[in-house]
Specification:
Layout (H helix, E strand, L loop, with lengths): L4 H17 L8 H11 L10 H12 L4 H5 L1
Length: about 70
């Protein structure tokens, strides 16, 4: 049971976030659109754009770039 507790909390976080956000009620925020755009224009070495943020955005776009993948 001790090893399953973090997995339980991760699943609870994803499900509760999706239920509270209510798919049609809210849209992505301005910053979230900006971060998704970093994935389209990978730029390594700029102080304003950390490389890991761009890489995570690219992975999000590769998975479909939808509301679920951005919020999860």
């Amino acid at each position: 049971m001790k090893h399953r507790l973090p997995l339980f909390f991760a699943i609870l976080k994803i499900i509760s976030g999706l239920l509270l956000a209510g798919y049609g009620t809210y849209e992505l925020q301005r910053d979230e659109y900006l971060y998704l755009d970093y994935g389209r224009h990978l730029a390594w070495g700029y102080i304003e754009v950390p490389p890991l943020t761009a890489l995570q955005s690219w992975v999000t776009l590769a998975l479909g770039g939808g509301f679920f993948w951005v919020k999860a």
